[in-house]
Task: structure prediction
Amino acid sequence: MKDLIGDSFTQFTPKAFIFLRGIAKHNRKEWFEEHRADFEREIKRPLALLVEEVDVHLATIAPEIVGSPKKSVFRIHRDVRFSKNKAPYKTHAACWFFHRDAGRGVGTEAVHGGAGFYFHIEPGKSFCGGGIWMPPRSAVTKIRQALTDDLEGFEEIVKGRTFRRRFGDLDTDGMLTRLPRGFATDHPAAAWLRYQSYTAWTALTPDEVTSPKLPQTLAKHYAAMTPFVRWLNGALGLSLATSR
Result:
């Protein structure tokens, strides 16, 4: 983004939360257009600058994971084609740091997507985390095979004191009620095979989100999550890197 050249991240201000509360209350095009300048100033620009600064940290933490102001920032417009909720705008803002060989794709349509890091800003619900969210069946199959082949390595990470103290348990979003077909109920990895997403996160306070030190805060969380993200990417055949 050419308009970012020469600038650096300063901080999100409390006005970012004011805008997000406003769009949650007045989720329509007319209100958004009236407050577009607020969105550009308080959300879009600082989020793009944050991506640039965190990317610098990732160059030494996990060089294979990258951030791009153009590709990492999610659009505020919702895809309402298949949703009963026709509200046109998201009530949060977010960005995604992705494996450079996998691309920025996320979710079931991201055939070549990988695991990465995530940041989410929303009044009362800000957080950061990582992993791989609702990947396509082919990716889930690879992860399940890796759980069979390297259960000890996976559990060493997700059951480790450092990981659990910071992120707790893996998120159970979309978890199956039964083991997938083909796996015995006494499978050693049964506890993990019902997951369809492999993600974890930690909450961020408003003070952390509006601090000038937010990039450093995210970098610390992402560094702690790197072994988890790398294990998942290894299961998908995506390699780690030691330099950019």
